């Protein structure tokens, strides 16, 4: 399973200096955490597909129509 172990916010000021923000309030961090949870799920599904292919794919291709 793909897991994000760290995230941060980096800003670049108009004078070219860069700074990492250390104290992110919960009202900002919570939605970011939710979005990153979704990103982890997508990444995990992509890795599974790359390793194992799709599973539970149902298709009627190649089947003969049933005669009643």
Total strands: the figure is 2
How many angstroms does the end-to-end distance come to?
46 Å
- Strand share of the residues? 5-15%
* Mean pLDDT across all amino acids: 84
Name the structural class.
Answer: alpha+beta
How is the largest sheet built, in terms of strand order? 1-2
What would you report as the Rg, rounded to the nearest angstrom? 22 Å
Shape: elongated
Low-confidence stretches: none
Please give the count of helices: 1
Order of helices and strands: EEH
Secondary structure layout plus pairing:
Blueprint: E1 9-12, E2 18-21, H1 26-52
Antiparallel strand pairs: 1-2
Defining key terms:
68 residues; elongated; alpha+beta
Written account of the structure:
By secondary structure, this protein is α+β, with helices and mostly antiparallel strands. It has one helix at residues 26-52; strands spanning 9-12, 18-21. It has a two-stranded antiparallel sheet with strand order 1-2. A hairpin with a 5-residue loop joins strand 1 and strand 2.
């Amino acid at each position: 399973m793909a897991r994000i172990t760290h995230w941060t916010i980096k800003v670049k000021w108009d004078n070219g200096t860069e700074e990492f923000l250390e104290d992110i309030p919960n009202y900002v961090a919570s939605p970011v955490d939710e979005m990153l949870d979704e990103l982890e799920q997508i990444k995990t599904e992509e890795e599974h597909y790359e390793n194992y292919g799709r599973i539970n794919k149902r298709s009627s291709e190649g089947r003969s129509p049933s005669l009643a």
